[in-house]
């Protein structure tokens, strides 16, 4: 339950982070376009900010990529645990079925013996 809350918090954080990042980019571009500068200067500023944002995005991608790898590793680990538990349950089930089979075989033998005794009794 705690992992689920933790993952939800991370998802919310990432959504807010990227929303803020997009807002920052849009604000920066609009601010530059309305700035009293020459066209060459504005284009250079936009290019520089774009490169800066790309670098920032690459750094964040690495962090996100690492978190994704961690989540995948945890998922694989949980899947392996579930597989092991499933195999354990199957083995326990086989034992229980074997025990039940032995009980049924005993009961059938006892029933046949009693039926034979009744048949012998009725024939006499």
Task: Annotate the secondary structure layout.
Elements: H1 2-34, H2 39-123
Give a verbal description of the structure.
The protein has 124 residues and is mostly helical. The protein has one domain. Helix content is 95%, strand content 0%. The protein is rod-shaped, with a radius of gyration of 36 Å. The termini are far apart.
What's the gist of this structure?
With 124 residues, the protein is an all-alpha fold. The protein has helices at residues 2-34, 39-123.
Task: Quickly count the helices.
Answer: 2
Considering DSSP H and I runs of 4 or more, what fraction of the residues is helical?
Answer: over 70%
Work out the strand percent: under 5%
Number of domain modules: 1
User: Taking all residues together, what is the mean pLDDT?
Assistant: 79
Total DSSP E strands: 0
The assigned structural class equals: mainly alpha
Instruction: Compute the separation of the termini in Å.
Output: 73 Å
Order of helices and strands: HH
Gyration radius, in Å: 36 Å
Largest sheet: none
Could you list the spans in which at least 5 consecutive residues all have pLDDT below 50? none
Give descriptors for this structure.
124 residues; mainly alpha; 2 helices; 0% strand; rod-shaped
């Amino acid at each position: 339950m705690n992992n689920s809350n933790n993952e939800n918090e991370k998802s919310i954080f990432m959504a807010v982070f990227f929303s803020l990042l997009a807002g920052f980019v849009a604000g920066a571009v609009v601010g530059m376009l309305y700035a009293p500068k020459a066209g060459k200067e504005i284009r250079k500023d936009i290019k520089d900010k774009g490169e800066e944002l790309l670098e920032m995005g690459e750094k964040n991608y690495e962090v996100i990529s690492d978190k994704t790898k961690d989540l995948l590793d945890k998922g694989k680990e949980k899947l392996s645990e579930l597989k092991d538990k499933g195999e354990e349950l199957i083995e326990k089930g086989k034992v229980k079925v074997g025990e039940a089979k032995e009980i049924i075989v005993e009961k059938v033998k006892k029933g046949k013996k009693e039926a034979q005794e009744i048949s012998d009794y009725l024939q006499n």
